[in-house]
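_Per-residue structure_
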Amino acid sequence: MDDETFRSWSHRAADWAVDYRQGLRKLPVRAQTPPGVTFNAVPPDAPEAPEAMDAIFADFERIVMPGITHWQHPRFFAYFPANAAPASVVAEQFVSAIAAQCMLWQTSPAATELETRVLDWLRRALGLPESFQGVIQDSASSATLAAVLVMRERALQWAGNRSGLTGQPRLRIYGSGQVHTSIDRAIWISGIGDDNLVRIPVHGERRSLDVAALDAAIAADREAGFLPAGIIASVGGTSVGGTDDVAAICAVARRHDLYVHVDAAWAGSAMICPEFRYLWQGVELADSVVLNPHKWLGAQFDCSAHFLRDPDGLVRTLAIHPEFLKTHGRDGVINYSEWSVPLGRRFRALKIWFLVRAYGLSGLRDMIRNHVRWSEKVAGRLAATPDFRVVTGPILSLFTFRHEPKGVPDLDAHNLRLINAINDDGRIYLTQTRVDGQFVIRFQAGAFEMAEADADMAFDVIVEIARRVSRDATAA
């Protein structure tokens, strides 16, 4: 591709992106293609000769786009959002064009220094104390893995990386059943083992970890010869928004000299709004916390903010200094590759810089507040509608519900039929979970360009299709 062709197609791609986003409301939110359609549309052998960009682009629209679930759709109410605000998309275009490797200060000084600055912007916006320093990880999974590795090394007196786990006491990590499955993977990859992830029961409307049970479990493990290493607290868990008492967990951790990591991957973004910070009260006592600007703030994936009260433990766990990676003649610089598991690093700070400047903290706060308000409105309307029950009330913009018409023998199967019918309809997209063994439907508002009318449509679609599914079941 020569320079002029590159220029032409870059313009065309930008125009296509704007048209695509303008037309999202006309598209079904979830991909409607059956399995295998895309795979079978692509030839089994790669082309030997170059192909024209016009042909490639035509196949992109014909083969790829029908099988895309539209995560930027204003009526995407499934999972958690993975927003890509337009200003962030523009920043990513520049990042792709520059294509820098930002592993060391010297490999792109501006990338390192901008990351330091914008993470401090974000720290201030979240109300975290000055003692916290931040690093951008690719995802919360990587940040949690890094935290678990620090827990391991700290508990083993920094001997695990050198000597391995053979012959060492069995380490224990504690968390509730509301924590994300990325915690399970971190336990596997760190070598600690799934049997040593101790699940503490939860209680209350927020599905909070039982702190008394946590304290007792740690004491019992020490008595049994295990080596407690750390606790992972949840703020806004994926299933129903499970939120722990961070301050109380940190108090237990201090008594037992354990490391605390707070997983606030989704909910943490809402803490730019001071009125929501009660959900993570005591976070300043934690050792580390992670939140994903690529979820609710609008930064294009991947972009996870990992804050640490003292990063020395992380660097001690992950830093490695072969000669070819040394930065000679520069003292006091940060090499962020020493703060993360991967060596290679993308220029992720640029999209945060563009995002915050283009929308302002006030604009981002307004968006989050609207999502919370609109979700609460939908929950309230469903609760007031016959045959619907709100199972778990809103934690920020997430709640769960069930449709429970009289005379239906299997309500789990009925709600499964309901959510499948809703998603096949295409106007909105929802996902499911289980609460106390019951199948429930999740609703979360978080799409960057969502409007109140989209929330109103969600309510209308849910009620309309629930009535239709009930009629069909009765007729059968």
In short: Residues 349-383 form the longest helix (35 residues). The first strand starts at residue 133 and ends at 137. Residues 101-346 form a domain with the Aspartate Aminotransferase; domain 2 fold (CATH 3.40.640.10).
